[in-house]
């Protein structure tokens, strides 16, 4: 007869001490205790869900302190991780760049200043800062004006050479081209909001009498808007940028205000347009055209802006599963280690880091997990989760993971609507992952005994609706796990909140996500 598990409260202090203990020794084979045997039986039962009959499921659970493997089914098989890839990118970035790493955006004078006239070019140079807002370009323009420059006789040069000119990631789907979560990557870019969705613009529509009004955030004339929408009794509107252009076409009907995040075609041109607009606002005229190119040696610095440190950027990156941050950090790692701001160089850094920490099965094609050729095994993810616990940057990295059931977007992140009212709420810290036919959840949970566990659940090739509830049931069961006490049955999940999205925020951009 199974007995009910004890409260998690009793194990809180034990768990805190255990999480702080650092990396573990190799696993020691043991006969399964009744608690482990029950856990195995319950996870097997959860995975017997009919939705997985034709699908692939890989699950690994380990003790984070002893390294003991508590559960494994197909843990060594290569599977598509989706955004679980970001666990590797974020860890490699923390190790390689350091938590104090900041991106810089500079304005340089390439010429002599004669009174209020700069006789040469004005250079805007970036290193990939995804947190640059229109207001930040405005502040740089204000500094230029404050330095006494009123006229630039030369050109505005956009220097994005810190990274290469390859804008889209390996194997990305062509029909994601205009989606904000697959925006092009550049060393010069801009974000429309404080989620820092670099390389995108928010296009808003609202009915206004017999017309539909269109606005953009930030305000910019970079996009060409073709508005064919009409007021109606319901909102059924499509906002779409045409392939390879700056033209956004709006069709359908609008009854209530609606907005869409749209990726720009060229983030360098977008950022330099915002800066040129800001210069004009502050009374600085640039007589020449906007061009791209490298700043000449000896150019004098007029203004500079530093981003928040990586320790802070990890929060919007991981909590909201920001794909663009992942790719920018990948190229930044390549630039630091080999002097090449390329995907190839950056992915080598991430792969080398993973292998140095005992990861054996991996294939990284990008930093975010958008590629369907990315591949990790659940055991490899569990190995990474265990190995990084001894790193000096671990706490900041751990704190950046979404927290189950916490409604605050910058705490709960992509798990904020999941596992509410269960033993996993406020306990599970894990990275989500979503692609069509792919879902994954990997991270940390404290058991009912206060024992820290690592887990990885990867579900691939299902044809049903999203089986994220299967991941949640496993996570809840791990929160109830005890080596000495058993539970009556796997916990039943409460119904998700009505506003809970099926997909994570790397795919959706509604107000509740």
UniProtKB/TrEMBL annotation:
Enzyme class name: hydrolase
Coiled-coil regions, chain positions: none
Keyword Repeat: no
Keyword match Transcription: no
GO biological process: peptidoglycan metabolic process; proteolysis
Entry keyword set: Carboxypeptidase, Hydrolase, Protease, Signal
InterPro entries the UniProt entry points to: Beta-lactam/transpept-like (IPR012338), Peptidase_S13 (IPR000667)
GO MF assignments: serine-type D-Ala-D-Ala carboxypeptidase activity
Signal peptide stretch: 1-29
EC identifiers of the protein: 3.4.16.4, 3.4.21.-
Family: Belongs to the peptidase S13 family.
Protein name: D-alanyl-D-alanine carboxypeptidase/D-alanyl-D-alanine-endopeptidase (Penicillin-binding protein 4)
Organism: Nonomuraea muscovyensis
